[in-house]
Design goal:
heterodimer, A: 121 residues, mainly alpha, 2 domains, 5 helices, flat, B: 462 residues, Rossmann fold, globular
Chain lengths: 121, 462
């Protein structure tokens, strides 16, 4: 487990500019996460009310804007100028999704109301 | 080796974020809990960002600050001012941004570490990320262009298109496989990325407007998968989880959409060639429709005890959702029960009609899915079709030669009266004449749906 934690450290750029070796075990560990999260996703999303399918799309989009996390590392200024600029654009694109995605999801969800609930904002 | 306290904090923040994302999505199962759920997801996002910044060794804040500031402003402006009718475009655009971030992070990794530093296994994830990301960036931009009307919405086709597209796609895959053998070859890496960009454009170009629900859902899925691959390439578990959730959500919706059209993914992606023009020689038998006026429609409506409204893309185009709601209120005031029947592929994306009607203050209890309302049409006095076409065509049930055959449709033809509001007598997207229009009990009221409904409302008020 320590080695897995270390992987994250170095990937996040703790001054060390070499990556931990991606061995078979680590790749499989990530694939397990990927596949199990996928099954969980199917279960959860299968229960989403069809009336909310558009907000669902914008919500999952906002959530996958979590790639912001990777963009932040690239834009942290410890790498080359090219990387920093790539990182800056990536931060911009991801932030559009995170900020815009959550705001517009909320704007949509606010509109869904029951009868006699007109006053709710 | 003791673990840095910042790593401990950030790893826990990631775990919390993952849990909050799942809880947030689960809350979307009902409109009553949805907003609270999104608040949880937003909290998760904030935690993950703070966690990352805690243990990232930031030398200069300028790039992060500029990127985040510009992104926030653009995102907020789009969220505040984008009209609800433009929602499909905005969703397409956001897939493009998400994938762009993934591609750029992939480039950054390759640039800094090179093929040798990455190693073969990591290169697999990175190559997948960059290729699918690139394809999604341009594919989504193309979908955006079509929905916004910048690019011609009709299928753009030419001879040998499918063979060319498939060949190009497989060359991109070939380059990807070559990279696994020779990861240091930067030229191959960037050529693969370029091929991905081109494939994205070409694959969406031949797809027509009515197939957009499937395409948008598929692109949603690709954007998620690219994000998940990024997570693997940069050792970030919360990114893997979020990407996977996004990917499966898109995949789930794609399946739902293509099932509602009775078509396979392959058919949607590669089937546009010649599908529309092939059916145009059908009008040889001259069938006549009787045109009615809004006043005729009002006479039928005012005596109805039960009404079902079927909205379609035409309602979105005519911006008629508000006036539909006004008519509904008048009918309800007269004692009629009014419900809306929503076909899964009505409009240009999953849930399109629901959002528009919600904007017009239609309570969501009045909206019914196809499966829940289809048996009630036979006991209904009047069906009002507002700008929908193919989803009501009875040919889907019996006419084996029709491109619509087998598609589940709304049983509008079983109601006692049918009023169809339509701009012109043109065939639907599938190119198939709608038999419903020639049914003796159908009243065709041609013209702009919004104007027609305004007239009906005026007459009802008298």
């Amino acid at each position: 487990m320590t080695s897995l934690l270390l992987a994250t450290t170095e990937a996040a750029g703790h001054a060390v500019h070499t990556l931990p070796p991606m061995d078979f075990g680590r790749l499989m560990f990530y694939l397990f996460i990927l596949v199990l999260a996928g099954f969980l996703g199917f279960e959860v999303i299968g229960r989403v009310s069809p009336t909310l399918h558009t907000p669902l799309m914008s919500a999952t989009n906002a959530i996958s804007g979590i790639s912001l996390v990777g963009s932040l590392v690239a834009a942290s200024g410890q790498y080359s100028l090219t990387s920093s600029i790539l990182g800056m654009i990536a931060v911009c694109a991801a932030t559009i999704n995170v900020v815009g995605g959550f705001m517009i999801t909320d704007r949509m969800l606010k509109m869904f109301r029951k009868k006699d609930q007109g006053g709710r904002k | 080796m003791s673990t840095d306290i910042n790593i401990v904090i950030s790893e826990w923040s990631y775990l919390a974020a993952a849990v909050l994302f799942v809880l947030g999505l689960r809350a979307l199962s009902s409109p009553t809990t949805a907003r609270r759920g999104m608040f949880l997801a937003e909290t998760g996002m904030a935690l993950a960002v703070v966690g990352t910044l805690l243990y990232t060794h930031v030398l200069t804040w300028i790039y992060i600050a500029v990127g985040a500031a510009v992104g926030s402003v653009i995102g907020a402006l789009m969220a505040i001012f984008m009209p609800m009718t433009a929602m499909p475009q905005r969703i397409a655009l956001s897939h493009s941004f998400g994938a762009l971030a993934a591609v750029l992070v992939g480039c950054f990794k390759y640039l800094e570490y090179g093929g040798a530093g990455l190693g073969r296994l990591r290169m697999t994830a990175l190559g997948f990320e960059v290729m699918f990301g690139a394809l999604t960036v341009t594919g989504s931009l193309m979908a955006f262009g079509k929905l916004q009307g910048i690019v011609r919405g009709a299928p753009i086709t030419y001879r040998g298109q499918n063979i060319f597209n498939i060949a190009l796609f497989f060359s991109a895959v070939g380059l990807f496989l070559y990279l696994l053998v020779d990861p240091n070859n930067a030229a191959v890496f960037y050529t693969m990325m370029a091929a991905g960009f081109v494939v994205g454009i070409l694959i969406v170009m031949p797809i027509g407007g009515a197939d957009m629900p499937v395409v948008i859902s598929l692109l949603n899925s690709y954007a998620g998968l690219a994000a998940a691959a990024t997570g693997i390439a940069i050792d970030n578990k919360v990114l893997i989880i979020a990407g996977s959730l996004d990917g499966t959500s898109g995949f789930f919706l794609s399946i739902l959409m293509s099932r509602a059209m009775n078509r396979s993914f392959a058919n949607v992606l590669f089937g546009a060639v010649g599908a529309a023009p092939a059916e145009s020689d059908q009008q040889t038998e001259t069938r006549t429709v009787i045109r009615y006026t809004p006043e005729d429609a009002k006479l039928v409506l005012e005596n109805a005890a039960s009404v079902i409204i079927i909205p379609g893309y035409g309602m979105a185009v005519a911006q008629a959702q508000h006036i539909v709601h006004e008519m509904t209120n008048l009918l309800v005031a007269r004692g009629a029960t009014v419900r809306y029947a929503i076909h899964p592929v009505a409009g240009r994306m999953p849930g399109h009609m629901n959002v528009l009607l919600a904007e017009a203050n239609v309570p969501y209890e009045q909206l019914f899915e196809m499966d829940h309302i289809n048996d009630d049409f036979q006991n209904t006095d009047v069906v009002v079709v507002v700008g929908a076409n193919d989803v009501t065509n009875p040919a889907a049930r019996h006419k084996k030669s029709s491109p619509l055959f087998g598609m589940p449709i709304l049983n509008a033809d079983q109601a006692r009266h049918v009023i169809v509001l339509k701009r012109s007598m043109g065939a639907g997207f599938a190119g198939e004449d709608n038999e419903l229009f020639y049914n003796p009990k159908t009243m065709m009221v041609l013209g702009d749906a919004k104007q027609t409904l305004t007239h009906i409302v005026q007459h009802l008020k008298k």
